[in-house]
């Protein structure tokens, strides 16, 4: 089934190549051109990271303030994060200034090409040039082939891309480098000049390519790195003004690589750790903030006893093992919970409001999260919550009830699909809170006990018998 | 004034002691949580936990109507009608209350801590019961003893979420209310008693013990001429209301009037009415007329009795087991189960206990019980005769079935509490009476009432003991005020008891030494109980640990396997395993099982037993006909886990052979001995269980295949599976899961049999040779 779709994808690409070259003269209405483009694609883990260096020159008459980045629809679907920066200064004094990037739709995009617009800091005047660095991460872009493997086989995957950089602009000179995890490359499409040295594939340099040039390539190589996909992650951050930040994370983990087929033999797995189950994984590393305490790791049938916590001043590392090694297609669910000192994460802003500063993404290294929900549970009685993120995420408000709540706690819910470790950047939740609310529950308990004693006192001193004897 | 103050102080002290006993009962059961984790234990608790989850999720009406299709496939099980709902409803209610107060405890947490909470309740109920029998001092002692009696701890540690956890509380509380009604003659307590009995019926099948013990006691009272209207009020409402209420519980239903376990209560019900009538007529007739009436009544009564007995016999004889269920029959005839029902005999807790288990479970109480019985005879009251009857019957039952040790424990605690309290009373009294300084000051302080100074001292001592002697003699007190008056105005019998007490004074040295020894005995009991709670009874059995040189080693294989099943198999797949693991599989892996610990259908279990003891192909056919996708076996040979399927295997053969005669036990035994080494019979070496357990086991230790449980080399080392394939084996090999190969393959292998067979065997041989000894 998946092999078929892969084939299908190839046909689409071939078709698009033909049509694109035909359509190219229509779209080449831009005044910008790319003088030099270099692309490095990293397919070592299951997250594909692409680093693009573009030297853009304005050949038109008016100055330009935006640069369009083009992607094939297939790729655009898998883009998880895209960052662009402009290079300032030369050689030693090089520094990067990040640019604002937005997905854009063009009315007459050939073959459904998707665009991202990078907004330049200063408009690019006629004849000037600027170097832009673009980084984007693709998830679920390595297709296992064969789709099912047995325990002793290594995992082979396909990577589809184009030898030529898909661009809205004319590219004078370009080259592409692809790094594979090992030198075990089964095959790759040759688009001369193409070359392979060890674990690196090189396409290009190609000269003078018109806009929307496309030349599909397929690389078939061995990748035994853990394809850890968290299908669903719910992170609950609960703020207690008594000094604790409680985080609970519910994971639905799956092995996203080639599906395991047939027998699982423990004796082979334990006896020959290198040769058998190469693509399976059993360790995961979660990077937690420093000063973490009361860590637990369990699932819905109890503790999972295989985990180690190492912590120092800078970070804590929690090494966890699922109950069983995960082979392709196998799933596991678990929950990690830990407490953090509040003063490390909660601050007061200048306008008297409080804000929580906490990292957004999944703490487990090199994982893709298909659907991430972050719930920030504010203390009871807090008002006007608002979240501030550096990327787009769906936001809404809920109310939750916990330990003797009466009016409920406001919960800021943030949802995002397709999250990679690059999303592990802090976000802020602002809210207003009066410290008097902290005393509500202790006072309530005290009064309940007081009333209890008063009533028992009254009962013991009352004679409610009808007949005196 | 002084006495009121002392009385108030005593009450407050008593309250705090009770509170502490409750805390002790709760906290001594937390060893399992501290040493292991907060998790449901063993087998049956997992079922109860699953039912509770269903109840909290779907509500009470869906619970009553719940048809569970995840078990006993393809038959299913009507949970609402076959389960004692008391425990689940209790925990469900607790959870509901907590959650409506916005205390977000999970269902699991509530279930884990239900048993410790109810042990605290049970300790308090014991206090009340013993107080009714022998006064506050004995009550406190009994409650403290019960709070930590190992027998009860074994069933009620945190996580042991089983019926017994709440049932023991219900049992003691029902007895308390019965004795309370007996002492007061209050209809209010009689009604409460029926409700408590209802709760007990909801909770545990052991309610039949109550409904047999109480009639026995009523009969005893009548026979010994202790009949009173109080007995009538204590007994009759209980039988009428109790039977009606019991019939409301679906699992009991009409059994409450149809099975022999309940007949004793009806018989005594008739007798007590006859006796009541006799007493009534005796009251209104002159003695001469009464004699005439007696002859008349006796003749009529005999006729009626004969008729009733005839009906009963006819009813009983019409049912195949003579109206008795297997478990109850094995109570009366201890050898019954092992003779006729292997499925009951196969459960270790249905075996008769050994002597060491008495010492383990009730410890020093065993020595204190006789003293308690003696104390109960001085003087014998309705209440004390009841506890005597209770201890005697429960000793018998505990001798039949080790599980019923649990019923013995409260009785032993009550008796020992009475014994301890009486002994302490005697010794302290003799010390106080012989300490010259003390007695003089007592004389001065309390020299206002009596003529004899020494009697005053004794009276004071009596008061400090908070002895209910006068109260017991006049049980129909209405409220506390009256009780107080009683205390202040000693009635006539207490003068008699005073003189009795005078005679009980022992030499000073003897008393001091005896006190010291008693304290030592108590200390020994406490140490033993804490040891038992911490070491012997707190293992959850779902996760095993062992101590090695390099620290604690955890064997979490069961949950590993269940988690694997729940995440990596289809939700409708059926898993076959021996019935022990049925409840756990449905609860933890959420997969349909063929048989489980409910064991209601012997044939079904026998089918699985037959499959396990058949050769591979026949087994495949049985399993395939049951839609089974996976077969789960527990194997302890690699790490030395003794309660694995190979050790249970003979029961599978026996139970299977009981229904399917082609499975014969002698085929699996060599000269009457069960062995798995090269001496084992070919039937044994070729049966499915053997193959699944030892498949590729030889590769773990380089060709030796040494079984660490049986301490021998296995008989057949290179095992070839044709109809099953290994799909998962846990880290320590304790659970192995095999998948049935689809039938399509089988047909193809038939057509080109020779070729595929030879190639596969060649393959295997090669692979075996290639990786010799992967462990070194």
From TrEMBL, chain A:
One of its GO terms (cellular component) is oligosaccharyltransferase complex. One of its GO terms (biological process) is protein N-linked glycosylation via asparagine. It comes from the Eukaryota. Keywords: Endoplasmic reticulum, Membrane, Signal, Transmembrane, Transmembrane helix. It is found in: Endoplasmic reticulum membrane. The keyword Repeat does not apply. It is a single-pass type I membrane protein. Residues 1-28 form the signal peptide. Its main location: endoplasmic reticulum. The keyword Disulfide bond does not apply. The chain crosses the membrane at residues 436-460. Subunit of the oligosaccharyl transferase (OST) complex that catalyzes the initial transfer of a defined glycan (Glc(3)Man(9)GlcNAc(2) in eukaryotes) from the lipid carrier dolichol-pyrophosphate to an asparagine residue within an Asn-X-Ser/Thr consensus motif in nascent polypeptide chains, the first step in protein N-glycosylation. N-glycosylation occurs cotranslationally and the complex associates with the Sec61 complex at the channel-forming translocon complex that mediates protein translocation across the endoplasmic reticulum (ER). All subunits are required for a maximal enzyme activity. Belongs to the OST1 family. Component of the oligosaccharyltransferase (OST) complex. This is Dolichyl-diphosphooligosaccharide--protein glycosyltransferase subunit 1.
UniProtKB/TrEMBL annotation, chain B:
GO terms for cellular component: endoplasmic reticulum membrane. Its EC number is 2.4.99.18. It comes from Daucus carota subsp. sativus. It comes from the Eukaryota. Coiled coil: none annotated. Residues 572-631 form the STT3/PglB/AglB core domain. Belongs to the STT3 family. Residues 745-756, 767-776 have a biased composition (Basic residues). It is found in: Endoplasmic reticulum membrane. Component of the oligosaccharyltransferase (OST) complex. It catalyses: a di-trans,poly-cis-dolichyl diphosphooligosaccharide + L-asparaginyl-[protein] = N(4)-(oligosaccharide-(1->4)-N-acetyl-beta-D-glucosaminyl-(1->4)-N-acetyl-beta-D-glucosaminyl)-L-asparaginyl-[protein] + a di-trans,poly-cis-dolichyl diphosphate + H(+). GO terms for molecular function: dolichyl-diphosphooligosaccharide-protein glycotransferase activity; metal ion binding. Its main location: endoplasmic reticulum. Keywords: Endoplasmic reticulum, Glycoprotein, Glycosyltransferase, Magnesium, Manganese, Membrane, Metal-binding, Transferase, Transmembrane, Transmembrane helix. This is dolichyl-diphosphooligosaccharide--protein glycotransferase. The chain crosses the membrane at residues 12-34, 78-98, 110-129, 135-153, 165-190, 196-220, 232-257, 263-281, 293-317, 362-380, 387-408, 414-432, 503-527. Residues 12-415 form the Oligosaccharyl transferase STT3 N-terminal domain. Residues 466-495, 745-776 are annotated as: Disordered.
